[in-house]
Specification:
The complex is a heterodimer. Chain A is 61% helix and 1% strand. Chain A is mostly helical. Chain A has a two-stranded antiparallel ribbon. Chain A starts with 30 loop residues before the first helix and ends in an 11-residue tail after the last strand. Chain B is mostly helical. Chain B has a single domain, classed as Cytochrome c oxidase, subunit III, four-helix bundle (Four Helix Bundle (Hemerythrin (Met), subunit A)). Chain B is 66% helix and 0% strand. Chain B is built from five helices and no strands. In chain B, helix 1 runs antiparallel to helix 4. The radius of gyration of chain B is 24 Å and the shape is elongated. Classes of the chains: A mainly alpha, B mainly alpha. Chains A and B meet through helix 7, helix 8, helix 9 and helix 17 of A and helix 1 and helix 4 of B. The complex binds protoporphyrin IX containing FE and copper (II) ion (CU). Protoporphyrin IX containing FE binds next to helix 12, helix 13 and helix 15 of chain A.
């Protein structure tokens, strides 16, 4: 870890030193080098396994499950990262050789090709994150359409049950671990340093490493379809002991989660250090934009909670490959242990998946209503409230799991309590809108759409938080409806809002507003068409994660399936709009939305090093319509008038 | 580095030109007295502590919550080598003092003290790992022998992995120390692995008491 601020060693290259020797094309960091280092590291991993097995006298020496696990999921990905050049600087540093202190050679993108290389510029990394996660979003959506085809009618049409479960599981896993969570990291990567008035993140090289671990995770999840026995099929929750007795595809989930988790812990740590140590002068905590606050709390959640899912997946894997009995009852293991450990991460994780979105919505609502955020401090404090409460509610996922009875009521009460800070946020957005001058452009439409759908999701959450209702609704489509109202109508809408909002800043171009609006309305309508009927289906008793169902549910399921196909098609409009606008859209001004936060005060796209001089922050971030109010002063011209 | 374009590049061809920047990034404002790399290490340690937390939770479930938990720990006829582990504890605690000595030495610009301290610490850490490996070989049960063994190998193995990581960090510091890096002003590269090493040490004491003593 080397920070940008840390003075570099006195042994760095001096201006007079001869330039480093240029390396041959197979030795330069990049895909060519990765193409031979990756297989080399696979072989290394393989022979480690083989040597150990030969030494211990185990039969067979070539045990392919172990080889794929160690060589394919651990050493080969490390070889890939090494080949791409993620570790180059560190290796120089480690070996004590001269390092070019902060040469910024890998900073900034000068052609589209630079986005496919290791880069340490937070703005480039942000865009790399967003494009990669969008790819996984499309892949996950495609899987959903496959199983919705199966579910359109009762009876078994296209897939057998194991394949069906594999599709459902991979869909949820891709969406959660390699789309929603990292997409927020991508948006924040782009926006947070700019908003803070920082030249970059605290650890730019760690930032690059975090990004490059992500494709590894996604590739593992997708590769599970090639495993004998098919993809992992135990849902994104992967309950033990079932998961330790599944075909080999399960291990791809166990290990993919480790890579995704390592990536998100590293980013979170980076955000925390950046926010604590690199704020511009005058940027006190109470002057930080709410997006920064949101990512601060989210990062705390990630750092504290994510190790628990890492642990839970290690245990499941050990139970499988080392025959331990963490969760197998016949040998002294504790079956429910998995669910406790898993949900101790995964309930906080649902806030990891929505708090950054809250931040985005706060930015958008305030800018497009031309009003200060209502109750700014309370907005920040309620984030902290959610952070603390998030750790006290995990067992609401286990009301019907046979856990200790006395845990039910406390967990129900703490769960209902979380609705309070969440409600504060919703009311504060509404109060911000009240009597504002609303500009209904695409980001704002998604923000308003978010509020309406998220409220429905929050309400169904309160239903299932009540033990008596949950006993009836658990494991039915009612829960599926809840999840999608909070995760699609919630998180995904905020991601779209953020993408449209920062698109001009990221690319220097405007998107097509008409296509944006079309995308919103199509998404909004078909989203409700797809997921609202699931409430009824669930209350009627249709179980989730089952390939076939009773004929009475047929009509509604057909509606759901049709809705889901149109919903999938609406993404094409979005992709078309983004690609065409990025290439040929009209040039964006530096501040098309007349926003006050610092990222809008620099050019679009921002200069490679963000600022010539660190800005001076002089006021709050949301003083829209307040005469004479300023948030920040930049050298070479004060803040543009940002009042309506 | 003349081959680096001077101005902020447009992201796609055809975007409008940028203001020229004649230099690298402006130095970031330091908004906290905390040093970035040290803070990063503390956050990393917090995360690591939670990973241990997950393993201790599994321990707690197996040993306390589980209705089928056995009276004795470990269940008869198995036994944990408490004495060996005690010796190992002494080794690791000593190594905390030696790394402390190393960092104190470089603060006085005493490079030889730094090198000696690092080498001794690395030797002690390696001795710990070696002892643990031998202990595994002679412990008399295997990972498949029940939940108590899962927890035993889980906690001690996780800790062993951390010793390995700590040793790697210290080795890096040692390589750099022997190549003449570090001085009274610049010794982050020793101090930060040192913090990690202390963490590994404290964690061992907890593991030792939970697994072997209690
Ligand atoms: C007012 C706030 C909320 C309450 C009271 C609440 C409550 C609950 C409860 C009790 C369950 C368990 C249902 C069951 O399995 O029987 C549940 C499931 C779930 N909730 Fe929420 N929730 C809330 C908000 C959220 C938010 C904001 C998200 C994500 C952004 C979320 C994501 C999920 C997910 C993914 C599941 C299903 C997990 C699975 O696959 O089993 N919830 N919620
Ligand atoms: Cu929950």
């Amino acid at each position: 870890m080397t920070s940008t601020t840390e003075p570099h060693s006195q042994h760095g290259l001096r201006p007079g030193d001869p330039p480093p020797r240029r390396r041959g094309i197979f030795m330069r960091p990049g895909y060519l080098r990765a193409s031979w280092v990756t297989p080399l590291f696979f072989l290394i991993g393989m022979y480690i396994v083989v040597a150990l097995r030969a030494l211990a006298g185990w039969d067979p020496v070539y045990d392919w499950e172990y080889i794929v696990l160690i060589a394919g999921m651990v050493t080969a990905p490390i070889g890939f990262l090494l080949g791409m050049g993620v570790f180059d600087y560190w290796l120089y540093w480690i070996s004590g050789r001269p390092t070019v202190a902060d040469d910024h050679a890998s900073h900034g993108a000068y052609s589209w090709k630079d986005y496919f290389k290791v880069n340490t510029d937070h703005k480039v990394i942000g865009i790399q994150y967003l494009v990669t996660t969008f790819f996984f979003f499309v892949a996950g959506g495609f899987l959903a359409m496959l199983f919705r085809a199966e579910l359109a009618e009762p009876g078994m049409q296209f897939f057998d049950t194991q394949t069906f479960n594999g599709l459902v599981s991979a869909h949820a896993t891709l969406m959660i671990f390699v789309f929603i969570i990292p997409a927020f990291a991508g948006l924040a990567n782009f926006a947070v340093p700019l908003m803070l008035g920082a030249p970059d993140m605290a650890f730019p090289r760690l930032n690059a490493l975090s990004f490059w671990m992500l494709p590894v995770a996604g590739a593992l999840f997708l590769a599970s379809f090639l495993a004998p026995g098919g993809a992992f099929a135990t849902g994104w929750t992967s309950y033990a002991p079932l998961a330790s007795e599944q075909p080999f595809g399960q291990v791809f989930f166990n290990m993919g989660v480790q890579w995704a988790g390592a990536s998100s812990i590293a980013t979170a740590l980076n955000f925390l250090v950046t926010i604590i140590t690199m704020r511009a002068p005058g940027m006190t905590f109470w002057r930080m934009p709410l997006l920064v606050w949101a990512n601060f709390t989210t990062s705390l959640l990630v750092v504290i909670a994510t190790p628990f899912i890492a642990g839970s997946q290690f245990f499941v894997m050990f139970d499988r490959v080392m025959h331990t009995s963490f969760f197998t009852p016949d040998n002294g293991g504790y079956v429910l242990g998995y669910q406790h450990i898993f949900w101790f991460y995964s309930h906080p994780a649902v806030y990891i998946m929505v708090l950054p979105g809250f931040g985005i919505i706060s930015e958008v609502i305030s800018v497009f209503s031309r009003k200060p955020i209502f109750g700014y401090r309370l907005m920040a404090v309620s984030l902290i409230g959610i952070l603390v409460l998030a750790f006290s509610v995990w067992a609401h996922h286990m009301f019907v799991a046979g856990m200790a009875d006395w845990l039910r009521i406390p967990m129900m009460i703490s769960t209902l309590l979380i609705a309070v800070p969440t409600g504060i946020k919703v009311f504060s957005w509404l109060a911000t809108l009240w009597e504002g001058k609303l500009h209904l452009s695409t980001p704002m439409l998604f923000a308003l759409g978010f509020i309406s759908t998220f409220v429905i999701g929050g309400l169904s959450g309160v239903y299932v938080a009540s033990v008596p209702i949950d006993i009836h609704a658990s494991d039915t489509y009612f829960v599926v409806a809840h999840i999608h109202y909070v995760l699609f109508g919630g998180s995904v809408f905020t991601i779209f809002a953020g993408l449209y909002y920062w698109f001009p800043k990221m690319t220097g171009r405007m998107f097509d507003e008409r296509l944006g609006k079309l995308h919103f309305w199509l998404t909004f309508v078909t989203f409700n068409l797809t997921f609202f009927p699931m409430h009824w289906l669930g209350l009627d008793g249709m179980p989730r994660r089952v390939a076939d169902y009773a004929g009475t549910y047929g009509a509604l399921n057909m509606v759901v399936s049709i809705g889901s196909f149109v919903l999938g098609a609406s993404v094409v409009i979005f992709a078309y709009n983004i690609v065409v606008s990025w290439a040929r859209g009209p040039v964006a001004e530096s501040n098309p939305w007349k926003a006050m936060t610092i990222e809008w005060q620099v050019s679009s796209p921002p200069p490679v090093f963000n600022f010539d001089e660190i800005p001076q922050v002089v006021g709050g971030p949301y003083e829209y319509g307040v005469p004479g109010a300023r948030h920040a002063v930049l050298r070479g011209g004060a803040l543009q008038e940002a009042h309506a | 580095m003349s081959d680096i374009p001077i101005s902020g590049g447009p992201h796609l061809a055809g975007s409008h030109p940028q203001e020229a920047i004649p230099h690298g990034p402006p130095p970031a404002n330091r908004s906290s007295r905390l040093d970035a790399a040290t803070l990063g290490m503390f956050l990393f340690i917090a995360s690591e502590a939670m990973l241990f937390g997950a393993f201790f939770t599994a321990y707690f479930f197996v040993r306390v919550v589980n209705p089928t938990a056995t009276e004795t720990w470990p269940p008869a006829p198995f036994e944990f080598p408490v004495f060996v582990a005690g010796v190992n504890t002494a080794i690791l605690v000593t190594s905390s003092f030696t790394i402390h000595w190393a960092t104190q030495a470089i603060k006085r610009n005493d490079r030889n003290g730094l090198r000696a301290g690092l080498v001794v610490t690395i030797l002690l850490g390696s001795a710990f790992l070696l002892t643990q490996a031998i202990e595994y070989a002679h412990v008399g049960f295997n990972t498949g022998d029940g939940a108590f063994a899962s927890v035993f190998f889980g906690l001690t193995g996780l800790h062993g992995a951390h010793v390995f990581v700590g040793l790697s960090l210290l080795t890096i510091a040692a390589v750099r120390a022997f190549r003449g890096h570090f001085s009274a002003e610049h010794h982050h590269g020793v101090e930060i692995p040192g913090i990690y090493w202390h963490f590994v040490d404290v964690m061992w004491i907890i593991v030792f008491f939970a697994v072997y003593v209690l």
